[in-house]
From TrEMBL, chain A:
A Gene Ontology term for the protein's cellular component: nucleus
Name used for this protein in its record: SRTD2 protein
UniProt cross-references to PROSITE patterns, sorted A to Z: SERTA (PS51053)
Domain SERTA span(s) in chain numbering: 33-80
Region of interest called Disordered, as start-end residue ranges on this chain: 1-29, 188-217
Organism of provenance: Casuarius casuarius
From TrEMBL, chain B:
Native source organism of the sequence: Casuarius casuarius
PANTHER family referenced in this protein's UniProt entry, alphabetically: PROTEIN PHOSPHATASE PP2A REGULATORY SUBUNIT B
One cellular-component annotation, GO: protein phosphatase type 2A complex
Domain of life of the organism encoding this protein: Eukaryota
Gene Ontology molecular-function annotations: protein phosphatase regulator activity
Presence of the UniProt keyword DNA-binding in the record: no
Family from the record: Belongs to the phosphatase 2A regulatory subunit B family.
Keywords: Repeat, WD repeat
Name of this protein: Serine/threonine-protein phosphatase 2A 55 kDa regulatory subunit B
Length: 316, 441
């Protein structure tokens, strides 16, 4: 899913890189080189993020896959050095010692570092249109993550900013009644659009349509984002945390349609998730409507819109 | 020594196979370790859930017949409540201790805990107590009218395995190696980032001798993959890494051997460079030759022999399955590229390692010849000489050759062992154990 979309996007964009790319092969095989590189990159991401073992994943395997991703990232960085480099979130330093990290639930693959309030403050221009991280953190975000990982987990990604952007803009997508994002393209579009646009329109209420942003262009800066996160116990890398989180988020919603079975913990949780996350959605969407909302106040959203959202989430 | 020719060449023939007949692999039967006992003619295999010992019952050397001697559960599955993860009971490594008395001792380890087992035989039992009946009930002393001396009488052989020491809670990461020192008092255990030194008698304390964990785990790019003590120098050990390096350390230099005495690394071949260069350079096994002069390393595609006196390149390199080099992307996708193949020596002359499709390979260092054999039930009759196999890399496939695309990558031989004295080898497929021996035997 992610791979196919990625490949297509990258191919289309490749034409623009003629002459700038430094690759071991030249001529017509350059394209196949970049194609292979993208394929390997996608496979590596899948390995890291789609794997949910009952036992600890092999650290050696994780390290090797991470190195692979880093190398490709470096290559892309060099190739894309003439293009504007996206501002990346500062790499949060791990504030806690070994003991905490070792105690963390190991299935928090995606991110294992606790959220630092300082990190939020550092990205001031984007905060205006975004849900306060604490809300996102404790409620929708955590809840949905909880569902996928069979347990409570605190899951702030190392690069907080892109996550908030992508998540909120993904929510906007649902709000706008876009077709349910089932492909990585839409997810990437959401992420990239959020990352691109949020910076440009900080004052907007957050209702943004994903522009026809060349997704590969935005994907490149994403790739240059923060380095792999915490290795302790798990595989968290911080690569494309926003993309993959959304990917998993929506993937979960997608499959709940087919796997609906109250007995299984995963889908059982998923079915429980729907009403919860809808609530959280509403809470998080509240700031976008620029109106003070308390849980008691009836929302201004149209009931039919709400139904549509519920449908997307539950898949019924 | 190898080959299908005459003269002094070994002709390997099938001896035995143990394990399930069908291909469906029961999870707990997966063979995860295989080792020959050094001094006695015995062998043990570890299945995922237990540990099985086989003893050579026939004393004569005409046929190396192995029968199951003892089976016991070495480790139990555990649950780490702190991390909410299972700790598998799967045994990663077994090492025999040299025999000191009638009992055998071995160390077995799973991901987190090492156990010392004592295996003892009992084939006699005392009979004729005065105060106890044969079934153990106490007799009424007033009924005793005569006295007799208890005697030992033979009984059916009973093999008892009892855990003698449990070395736990010393490893945060998964244990990948254990190695007994030549002093027979200490041993090392290695996980992904640390190596600890233990005394066999002391379970509540171990000393950390190597620690490559970076202060910031995000900077982690290399892990320890295997470690072994030198067979003769009790202060020397080596450990290999996921980047294809081997470090030799001397424990006399410092308490924490973070600085190696020697670093063995072969420069990368630029013509073979690919995305997967690092992954296939990761060393999955390191073994000293019996003399201690050489060591052998196994990476994904090759076996390398190193002279301890030369650090900048191996003295010999043997390609195990070079035809896989063009398939690395697929093998990365299906995770086969992370398979950890082991290797073993026959003295200092022949090395053996496994491959896919239930093939295993032997390389003769002296004649430079190599052979590929297959462990399959088709060669079921004892004394059937194994036919050499060949994989056709590309082009026209000759008769009896197998093309790369028809290899079964689920049938992998990760563990092989060579009898310390005889030309008898044990080869572990996913759920079967094959024993082959020299036809001359």
């Amino acid at each position: 899913m992610l791979g196919k979309g990625g490949k297509r996007k990258f191919d289309e964009h490749e034409d623009g890189l003629e002459g700038k790319v430094v690759s071991p092969t030249d001529g017509p095989s350059k394209v196949s080189y970049t194609l292979q590189r993208q394929t390997i990159f996608n496979i590596s991401l899948m390995k890291l993020y789609n794997h949910r073992p009952l036992t600890e994943p092999s650290l050696q395997k994780t390290v090797l896959i991470n190195n692979m991703l880093r190398r490709i990232q470096e290559e892309l960085k060099q190739e894309g050095s003439l293009r504007p480099v996206f501002v990346t979130a500062a790499q949060p330093a791990d504030p806690l010692g070994d003991s905490f990290r070792e105690a963390q639930p190991a299935f928090s693959h995606l991110a294992a570092q606790p959220l630092l309030p300082a990190e939020l403050v550092s990205t001031t221009p984007l905060e205006a249109c975004l849900t306060p991280a604490s809300l996102l953190e404790d409620d929708a975000f955590c809840t949905s993550q909880t569902v996928q990982h069979d347990g409570p987990t605190k899951l702030p990604p190392p690069a907080l900013q892109p996550v908030k952007d992508s998540f909120s803009s993904a929510l906007d997508e649902i709000e706008e009644l876009c077709p349910a994002p089932t492909s990585a393209e839409a997810v990437a579009a959401a992420a990239d659009a959020a990352a691109d646009d949020a910076k440009d329109h900080p004052s907007e209420s957050g209702v943004q349509r994903p522009e026809g942003v060349p997704e590969s262009r935005a994907a490149e800066p994403k790739l240059m984002d923060s380095l792999p996160g915490n290795f302790e116990i798990t595989t968290s890398t911080g690569f494309l945390t926003d993309l993959t989180l959304d990917d998993i988020l929506f993937a979960d919603i997608d499959t709940s349609m087919y796997d609906f079975d109250p007995c299984t913990s995963a889908t059982g949780a998923a079915s429980k998730m729907a009403p919860v996350s809808a609530d959280e959605l509403l809470k998080t969407l509240a700031p976008y409507s620029s109106q003070p909302v308390t849980p008691n106040q009836p929302f201004k959203m149209d009931l039919t819109e709400l139904d549509h959202i519920m449908e997307v989430l539950v898949g019924s | 020594l190898l080959g299908a020719g005459g003269g002094n060449d070994i002709q390997w023939c099938f001896s035995q196979v143990k394990g399930a007949v069908d291909d469906d692999v029961a999870e707990d039967k997966l063979l995860s370790e295989l080792q020959y006992r050094k001094l006695k003619t015995g062998m043990r295999t570890a299945a995922k859930s237990g540990l099985s010992l086989s003893e050579n019952k026939t004393q004569s050397h005409s046929r190396g017949e192995y029968n199951v001697y003892s089976t016991f559960q070495s480790h139990e599955p555990e649950f780490d409540y702190l991390k909410s993860l299972e700790i598998e009971e799967k045994i990663n490594k077994i090492r025999w201790l040299p025999q000191k008395n009638a009992a055998q001792f071995l160390l077995s380890t799973n991901d987190k805990t090492i156990k010392l087992w004592k295996i003892s035989e009992r084939d006699k039992r005392p009979e004729g107590y005065n105060l106890k009946e044969e079934d153990g009930r106490y007799r009424d002393p007033t009924t005793v009218t005569t006295l007799r001396v208890p005697v030992f009488r033979p009984m059916d052989l009973m093999v008892e395995a009892s855990p003698r020491r449990i070395f736990a809670n010393a490893h945060t990461y998964h244990i990948n190696s254990i190695s007994i020192n030549s002093d027979y008092e200490t041993y090392l255990s290695a996980d992904d980032l640390r190596i600890n030194l233990w005394h066999l008698e002391i379970t509540d304390r171990s000393f950390n001798i190597v620690d490559i964990k970076p202060a910031n785990m995000e900077e982690l790019t290399e892990v320890i993959t295997a470690a072994e003590f030198h067979p003769n120098s009790c202060n020397t050990f080596v450990y290999s890494s996921s980047k294809g390096t081997i470090r030799l350390c001397d424990m006399r230099a410092s308490a924490l051997c973070d600085r190696h005495s020697k670093l063995f690394e072969e420069p990368e071949d630029p013509s073979n460079r690919s995305f997967f260069s690092e992954i296939i350079s990761s060393i999955s096994d390191v073994k000293f030759s019996h003399s201690g002069r050489y060591m052998m390393t196994r990476d994904y595609l090759s076996v390398k022999i190193w002279d301890l006196n030369m650090e900048n390149r191996p003295v010999e390199t043997y390609q195990v399955h070079e035809y896989l080099r063009s398939k690395l992307c697929s093998l990365y996708e299906n995770d086969c590229i992370f398979d950890k193949f082991e290797c073993c020596w026959n003295g200092s002359d022949i090395v053996m390692t496994g491959s896919y499709n239930n093939f295993f390979r032997m390389f003769d260092r002296n004649t430079k010849r190599d052979i590929t054999l297959e462990a399959s039930r088709e060669n079921n009759k004892p004394r059937t000489v194994l036919k050499p196999r060949k994989v056709c890399a590309s082009g026209k496939r000759k008769k009896d050759e197998i093309s790369v695309d028809s290899l079964d990558f689920n049938k992998k031989i990760l563990h092989t062992a060579w009898h310390p004295k005889e030309n008898i080898i044990a080869v572990a497929t996913t759920n079967n154990l094959y024993i082959f021996q020299d036809k001359m035997n």
